[in-house]
Structure formats: structure tokens, C-alpha cells
Amino acid sequence: MRSTIHQKDVCDVACIHPEAVEQARKRALDSLAAADLSRIFQVMSDPTRLRIISILADGELCVCAIASALSMTVSAVSHQLRTMRIAQLVKYRKEGRIAFYSLDDDHVLKLFTQGLDHLSHSQAPRTTINKRKR
Amino acid sequence: MRSTIHQKDVCDVACIHPEAVEQARKRALDSLAAADLSRIFQVMSDPTRLRIISILADGELCVCAIASALSMTVSAVSHQLRTMRIAQLVKYRKEGRIAFYSLDDDHVLKLFTQGLDHLSHSQAPRTTINKRKR
DNA sequence: TGAATAGTTGAGCGCATATTCAAATAATAT
DNA sequence: ATATTATTTGAATATGCGCTCAACTATTCA
Q1: B27: Cβ–Cβ under 8 A, 6 or more apart, which residues?
Q2: What is the mean pLDDT of residues B71-99?
């Protein structure tokens, strides 16, 4: 119906500040990179996963130990470890029927600590985006 | 029914490695801190918000210009800016009916660039957690 | 005053996903 | 072989949330 991508709401004629729009378009992260980057933060955006990271920071642990330390079901933890495994946040080695998980990457720890740093400095409101609580 | 917090699935007697569990419990991020920290990463976990950050990195822009540069509706962008405002990622000043938004915090940019850094080094699979696409 | 413009906001849709529950798998012990 | 133990997995449930649409506010212009 329309030759361009835009809905009626979008001022694609670059409303008030055409030059600024042009500049902004150039330096904007493209959708692909933005999606990739968002995925990194996404994995870090869950309290359980963050707690798992904090626990694994000092070395490997079996699933049961993680679950126990967090007072969560083994199943819930295993699900999370799976996501973290796919995201290459953790790796594991098997010893008999026991799986020992550890952090795969130190980049993750850097992001983690930088996040904590941010937390201690700025005090953002706690009401922003409410995480799921059961 | 039970005196402790656990479901049947949780081995609260600290199954195989009791000492490790004890240690882990001590160094684990508490739920509150984890929730706070997760909120920070949460705000950074959306492609649109990341693109807005990348656009505002060089200076303030009005809502319409942001929307135009991203080829998105003003409404969608405004909703996101609201979230970012509440999370203290951006601030704005009004000039007549025009609202100029800018980054509120350089911590954010640090996290942003660190994330990009992570992206360039490790190559995580793109199939992990799929963000909403319309 | 009335029309146009910049932006905000609330409801609603649809999808993503954290946890639970139950069942399955695999290794070990009896 | 059977039972137990450590972990995984799939379905179901519930909640979170990004975007759209429509309505609204506020400012400027005629």
C-alpha cells in the first residue's frame, strides 16, 4: 500500500531537524547489531542467572549445589543453566552423573561487576521494570 | 507443611557437596541485589532502547527526530523514552512543544560499549533468546 | 477561537520466558 | 535386573513487555 516502511505516525520527511535526523541515522546501531547486543544484556537481566553467576565466580559447582545454595528447585536451575550454556555464559564437565558448571567467559564477569558498580553509584528507582516473582 | 522453604525437588540437606553449598550461599548475591542488578541489564536488553542510546550518544534529539532516524512511530519511541526516563537512562528538556532527550548517565554508555566489546570478541549464537520481532 | 503540531498515555494484542510439574535419561548401587 | 540418584527436558501456566491504535494534553499559528 505504501512505498516506504512507515506508518502514518512516522514523520519520515524528518520533521523539525532534518540534518540531525540524517546524522542520527548514520551513527545509529543497525537493527542486527542492536539485536545481538540486546541478547547479551538479556541473558544478564534475570535475577536467578545473576545469582548463579555470582556463585560460579569462585569455581565450578554441581547443579544440585547451585539449587541448594539458591533455595530453588533443581529443575528451575537446570533450565536456567541451559539458557546460560546456549548463550555461552557457562560450560560444564560431567563426572559420572554429576554435572559441574563453571563460567565460560570472563567478559561476563566484567559486565557483571560493571553492573554492580553502576548499581552502587546511581540509585535508580526499584519500580521500573518489574521482574516476575512467584 | 514443611519447616523449611524448599519443595520436594530441592536437596536442602546440601546433597553431595555440603561445604561447597555453604560457601556458595555466603557469596551468592542476595535476591534483592540480584533484582536491582537485573533491572539495569533489563533496560539495556531491548534493541530499540540500545539504538536510542547509540543515537543519543552524540547529543540531544527531539522525539520526532529519534523516531524518524529509527523509522519507528513516535508513540513507540515515546513509550521507550518513558521507560528509559524512569530508569534514569535519559533526561529531557522542553522547548515549547518540543522535547529534547539526552543521555542522563555515562555509566550507561560504559555498559553499552562494554557490551559491544563483548560482542566483537566472543561470538555467541544468534538463536539464543529471540527478541520480539513484528 | 479553531486548526495544526509535538508529544504522552492507556488499553489491548501477541509473543517471550521463568518457574512448576511430571516424565524421561543416564549413571551408580544393591 | 531393580532401585536410587543427578540431571534434563517438554508442556503448561502466568506474567512481563514492546508495539499499535486511539484518545488526550499542551503549545503554536492562523
Answers
A1: A54, A55, A57, A58
A2: 97
Cell numbers describing residue A11? 514523520
pTM: 0.86
Q: Which helix (H) or strand (E) holds A67?
A: helix A63-70
Contacts with B62 from chain A: Cβ below 8 Å: 15-17
Q: Kindly report, residue by residue over B6-26, the tens digit of the pLDDT.
A: 334 444 455 678 888 999 999
d(CA B48, CA B52): 6
Q: Which amino acid is at B101?
A: Y
Cell matching residue A76: 528451575
Nearest-5° Cα angle at A4, A3 to A10: 135
Instruction: Provide the sign of the torsion angle of the four alpha carbons B5, A53, B132, B107, taken in this order.
Output: positive
* Under 8 Å between Cβ of A61 and A100: yes
Q: Please tell me whether residue B61 adopts helix, strand or coil conformation.
A: strand
Look up residue A106 and give its amino acid: D
CB–CB of B95/A8 below 8 Å?
A: no
* A7 beta carbon to strand D: under 7 Å: yes
B89 CB and strand D closer than 7 A: no
Rg, C-alpha atoms of chain B:
21
B42 CB closer than 7 A to any strand D atom = yes
State which nucleotides on strand D lie below 7 Å from a protein beta carbon. 5-11, 15-23, 26-28
Beta-bridge partners for B103: B90
Question: How close is the nearest chain A Cα to the Cα of B93, in Å?
Answer: 16
